[in-house]
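Amino Acid Chain and Its Fold in Token Form
===========================================
Purpose: to set a sequence beside its fold so the mapping can be learned.
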Amino acid sequence: MKQIIFAVCLVFITAATCFAWDPSGTWAIEGRTDTKMDISCKENACSLKMQTKYGKYDASGFVNGDKLLVAYNYLTETSFGFILFEQQGNNSMLQKTFDIKGKVVWNGRLFRK
């Protein structure tokens, strides 16, 4: 009986990992046409490149459940911080950008292109 329960638990753990959120792809900020964000993930580690009319930045981070947390470096200014993306369905996510003191400096919604 213990082996059957163990096998069932193993199947659920494996299935949950197989269906985890994968934010890989091209994203854009809702309501703006000047943004392009490319996210590529391998397992739970991700890298991000974003271009807007205001500048470019690179970031790297990790997926945990329905969230992606990255540390970014704004390449056109001397600026860096953290971004938290939260899955909102298959084709959209919320973004919160934090400065290094933890203050939210931008909120927005992104959609998959």
Observations:
- DSSP finds one helix and eight strands in the chain.
- The CA atoms of residues 1 and 7 lie 10 Å apart.
- Strands lie at 25-29, 36-42, 45-51, 56-64, 67-74, 79-87, 92-98, 104-112.
